[in-house]
Amino acid sequence: MAKYLVETYYTCTFKVNHYLDDINETDLKNLEKRDDGKFEVLDVKLDNRKTKSLDPNNNKVINNKNLEVLSETKQTSQQNKESIIANLNKSSEKNGRRFSMPDRRKGYIQKATIGDHKVYLHTGEYEDGKIGEIFIDTSKEGELVKALMNNFAIAVSLGLQYGVPLDEFINAFVGTKFEPSGKVHGNDRILSASSILDYIFRELAISYQNREDLAHTPSIGGNDISSVDDQVSEDQNQLLKIVKDITSKGFVRNNYKKNLVDLSDVKISLKGKK
Length: 274
Prior knowledge:
Elements (H helix, E strand, L loop, with lengths): L3 E14 L7 H5 L8 E16 L7 E4 L9 H21 L14 E6 L2 E9 L5 E8 L4 H19 L4 H8 L8 E4 L6 E2 L2 H14 L24 H13 L2 H4 L3 H18 L1
């Protein structure tokens, strides 16, 4: 059980950047109340250190204002300081920042029929295969429904680009019930859906999150689990990396390993012909 409590006090210097459409007295006065600014840590300085005894019979407090006599060297202190600044800046970038999609991106289109209604799901992915946007096209729907579905897809896409986990959308919309609903044709993993949203987020859950519990049929190629056997050769590892770089993660439903085997066979055949 610990016997002492050590409190270390720091002074942090940072700046906050705000982007304004116009400059006026009201906006400048309200800057401190806004929480949409991006802050950057400039400097972190050790100020004081107090050591307290946790023994109730010993209330002695030791102040150590001369922090230069600490056991850590100046070089280590500088490294710790840079590490603190880097971590703080990294965390600040994640909060309230939109990660825009690349201009040229991967993705896939899934066509399916729910009842008598055709639904086309388009996805867009970042370079690492993470989903960043969706588009939804439907047939036999009025202009109002089409506009609502369009704007719903935009709202989901913005949420994904601002860092909302896909799981949050899946948990919110899988199981929703409204027409059209019923049997699903054209999707090998989903046989029925209680609504268009139920179908869409089941498909995204299966393709991007390996949510086999939401599928109605087993995976034909098996789960990739983003890993390869330890005995796989170095050439196959390189091919696996190439497959992941050029292939849509959602399209292959994480089944990179199956594609790796196919590419390996092609490579061997070409060598044999030479």
